[in-house]
Amino acid sequence: MLLYVLLGFSAGLPFYMFSTVLSARLSDHGVALTIIGFFAWVQLLPTFKFLWAPLLDRYDVPGFARFWGKRRGWIMLSQLGIFTSMLAMTVTASDSNLAITALFAVLLAFWTTTLEVAADAWRIELAPTPEEQGPIAASNLWGYRTAMVAAGSGALLIADMPALSWPGAYLAIAVAAFLPFPILCAMRPDPALSSVRHPARGGGRWVALGTGLVASVLILGVATLVTAAVGWAILSGASGIGFDQNTDVKPLVFTVAMAPFLLMAAALPKIIKARPDSPLRSSAAIGPYVDFFWRYGFMAIAVLGFVSVYRMGDVLALNLSKPMILGLGYTKSEIGRADGVVALAASIIGVGLGGWMVTRWRWGVTLTIGAFFAALGNFGFVWLAHMPRGEVTLYIATALDQFGNGMAGAVFVVYLSMLVNPRYPGAQYAFLSGFAFLLSRLLSGAAGKVVTDLDAAGYNGFDMFFLASGVISIAALAFLPFLARTRPRPDDRPEAAA
């Protein structure tokens, strides 16, 4: 349980370092708001983790897996990836070359997501029953929530120290995120491995560690080269068509965002008519996902539209809230203190109340209350901008935002869980939770451009942006009258009837 506290802590720290904290760093270095918005697209990587997650089931990490097993081997490799990526972000903390900053931010996001995939798989194997799973899952979540304070608050407090600044902040968080690695190295070997039962076949702990480190250097190097090559191709292509910070990306983003819904509409007629023995429904690879659309029919589009919009206000605010607050004249230390105990306490209370509501009231009522409090958090930033500068005022705005996020998040998780078929709980929940943030993270990349354009048009860009993001949270409730009458089709397969 203590190890999973540290693994949750180790996964939560880097997420904030390539999202919220990075946006504050870029803003501090005078990077244009439009470019800061583009960096939000790095957060799309966790949404697509299902693309490489099967590799962690199929392949071992050379060296590490020989002594510690498949799961711990991937966790150790991911830890090294996170540590080296943050060291690279420490060295390049001046942000003089934004392409290099983007490269290491993407690598940090990739290895952070890989760590979560490996840790989740190992957790399920360690604790196969609900009674065993509960304490470990809670430990992991507690560590993750604690990381919010350490990254969101600690990094900003360190960055505000002239002797340390941003390099010191990233170095400190890199060391903290690396804490589980030596503990994993000291753990017992996997008793199921033949190399452990017969040491001559695989060597001991030190041989496995040395071999694993060499293999990790090669793997990390290849991953860096591949990421750099893909990034160079994307940036070159974008530059070739004249794409830069002055480009209006909104039409492109909306086109990409609408593509999944158009594809679903085109595929649904065939899916709805599919028989139980159809390859579409019986496939181990796509069957669980097809099942969701078969059960809900054309209402699946409305359901996915709702889940895409419900948390959009929170996600949009995540990337630009720190640049706005810095622009109001608040110091990094003041923001760090607000993001510390105040934010954590408000978030925990919001999660608790949201969890209590779903046990007492209908989901329509709880979703409505959650949406209004999430919107109130976004409106709080507008209120903050028009109040006299004061640290208590900042605490109130931060508390409103975190309380609303916590409450809406807890209610939303329960609603998503209600949508899945118990036959495919893991796959369908992964799909829904990933899709729920795909649209909002796509649009986040255009948020900086939206604020800049509003300022150019004579409006207060941040005011309009946070007002609009709050209204979006409430606008999601327009789906509820339709969804209230939505019922999934009963499973028509013989084994389901039995």
Automatic annotation (TrEMBL):
GO cellular component labels: membrane
Q: Could you tell me where this protein is found in the cell?
A: Membrane
Please provide the record's keywords in A-Z order.
Membrane, Transmembrane, Transmembrane helix, Transport
Predominant location: membrane
The protein's matches in InterPro entries, at most eight in alphabetical order, are given as: AmpG_permease/AT-1, MFS_trans_sf
Topological relation to the membrane, as annotated:
Multi-pass membrane protein
From which domain of life does this come? Bacteria
Q: Where are the transmembrane segments?
A: 33-52, 73-93, 99-122, 142-159, 165-185, 206-232, 252-272, 293-313, 340-358, 365-386, 392-417, 429-452, 464-484
What is the official name of this protein in its record?
Permease
Organism ancestry: Bacteria, Pseudomonadati, Pseudomonadota, Alphaproteobacteria, Sphingomonadales
